[in-house]
Prior knowledge:
Blueprint: H1 2-10, H2 28-47
Amino acid sequence: HVDNALELLTDLPAGQADADGVYSHDSINYQVQYRLAEWLALRQHYSSPEPKRD
Length: 54
C-alpha cells in the first residue's frame, strides 16, 4: 500500500527490485535506497574512531 501511495503522490513509479535488490533508476524506491546508502556512508565515516595521538 505504501508503494501505491507514493506513486499517487509523486507521479513516479515505485519500482520493482531486481534479483540483486536494486531498483530501476527512475523509481521512488531507487531514490530512497540511494539516500539511505549515502546516510550509511556518512555515518560510517563520522563514527569511525579517531586515531590515537601520542
